[in-house]
TrEMBL record:
Record domain Amine oxidase: where: 24-434
Organism: mine drainage metagenome
PANTHER family assigned: AMINE OXIDASE
Record-given protein name: Amine oxidase, flavin-containing
GO molecular function: oxidoreductase activity
Annotated transmembrane regions: none
Coiled-coil spans in chain: none
């Protein structure tokens, strides 16, 4: 008891800023604050930084915790990440669409003219839709932020209908492709967000670091001063005091901060801030769910680094999209093996039994796609993610990080549902602190 009392009597460590959560938003915020010369402690409950962006090593395979990619034209990612050291490996533009028992290559005619010939002469897609895709691409390439927010706020599905696309291409191409991006197949996501993302796809590439998506947060964490990032530091206590914010962790560490930033996902932020007896944080967002199942295969089921889409819809099986990650980056699999990544939108099983049932349905669908070799695929892991992406039914200008009861909030749930949104929100939270660092309170 004497030792416990002695520990309890130790004063908290004084710092300028405490940030809770070392995902991309928290890391971006910490980097800006540290660069300005302020003292900062970045507290992360897990054993490594990254939040939802983590990579596991299993039997020589690199398994991202859910199918994740970096869109290389994200402006915030370009400004904060060192692409060269990440050694990015790119997916081919376009997609391979499974429809009515066969595969159809949807290529970008402006970047893959040779492969696009097949798409242009493929009678499965009406000519009018092909021309409309070209028109949409042209319009989005010249899209400005001002034009995005000047446009009508409506769902992506309604926007595609008004643009003139047929139900065929909406259901066979846009729904599985952007359903996989948004993690919701109804295309209820804001058309503003769709148009901006379409421009990002048209100008850049989807890519992964050579050694897994976890390299993104690892790169940001490596730039922080020593002792800034505190891992295995689950926050259990938040209190407002006359001198700032008292923050206590499960391990017994204590901090007294002039500023407090919550950079955890919205459900965790809401739970942690309940102790402050405030009305709540940001609006309670709806989160989209997903599950990724990884398989080891001796032979790749496709021969190029392209996303394969389920153009027949959910009635044909649970897999919305598939990729052979070892064709994108050879380091994702050991020599002589391939890593197949099957992705389900809208489901995140909570029990082993439900996960096993889902895997059997996935395997049955893959057998219909690729035949008997699927029987020899070995399951490596399954990742159900209940809080994968915040639902983005509207998109508003993001001018400043929100504040609740004096606490700054950042993360993709307050900006846009993306790596771009997480990084922007972290930088904006830091900017707000730096602009008001001479003030005693918000």
């Amino acid at each position: 008891m004497g030792q416990m009392s002695l520990l309890d009597s130790q004063p908290p460590e004084p710092v300028d800023v405490v940030i809770v959560g070392a995902g991309l938003a928290g890391l971006a915020c910490a980097q800006q604050i540290a660069a300005a010369g302020m003292s900062v402690r970045l507290l992360e409950a897990a054993s490594a930084p990254g939040g939802r962006i983590r990579t596991d090593q299993v039997d020589g395979f690199l398994l991202d915790r859910g199918f994740q990619v970096l869109l290389t034209e994200y402006p915030e990612a370009q400004s904060i990440l060192d692409y060269e050291s990440l050694k990015l490996r790119q997916f081919l533009p376009g997609a391979l669409v499974r429809q009515a028992g066969s595969f159809h290559r949807f290529a970008d005619p402006f970047r893959e003219p040779a492969k696009a010939l097949g798409f242009l002469f493929d009678s499965i897609v009406p000519l009018r839709d092909k021309l409309l895709v070209a028109r949409l691409r042209s319009e989005c390439l010249h899209l400005t932020t001002e034009r995005v927010f000047a446009s009508e706020e409506e769902s992506t599905r309604e926007y595609l209908r008004r643009f003139g696309f047929s139900p065929f291409i909406t259901e066979r191409f846009f729904q599985p492709l952007f359903g996989g991006v948004f993690l919701e197949r109804n295309l209820s996501t804001s058309a503003r967000w769709f148009r901006w993302l379409f421009s990002i796809f048209a100008r850049g590439h989807a890519a992964v670091p050579r050694l897994g998506m976890e390299r993104l947060p690892q790169q940001l964490a490596a730039r922080l001063p020593d002792q800034t990032l505190r891992l295995n530091s689950s926050v259990t206590q938040l209190e407002k005091s006359e001198n700032g914010w008292f923050v206590g962790t499960e391990s017994g560490a204590k901090y007294l901060a002039k500023r407090l930033v919550m950079a955890t996902p919205e459900p965790q932020t809401r739970l942690l801030m309940a102790s402050l007896r405030t009305p709540g944080v940001a609006p309670n967002r709806v989160w989209n769910r997903t599950t990724t199942i990884y398989y080891a295969a001796s032979h790749a089921p496709v021969d190029e680094p392209v996303v394969v889409l389920n153009g027949d819809g959910p009635s044909a099986g649970p897999v919305n999209h598939l990729a052979v990650m070892s064709l994108v980056s050879a380091d994702y699999a050991p020599p002589g093996a391939h890593l197949v990544c099957a992705n389900i939108v809208g489901a995140a099983p909570e029990s082993d039994e439900a996960m096993q049932k889902l895997e059997s349905e996935v395997r049955a669908q893959m057998r219909r796609w690729f035949g008997d070799p699927v029987n020899r695929w070995n399951v490596l892991a399954g990742y159900p993610v209940a809080h994968a992406l915040p639902m983005q039914t509207s998109l508003q200008p993001f001018h400043s990080a929100p504040v609740d009861s004096g606490v700054l909030i950042c993360g993709d749930h307050v900006a846009s549902s993306s790596i771009q949104g997480a990084l922007v929100s972290g930088r904006m939270a830091a900017a707000r602190i730096l602009d008001t660092s001479a003030q005693s309170h918000f």
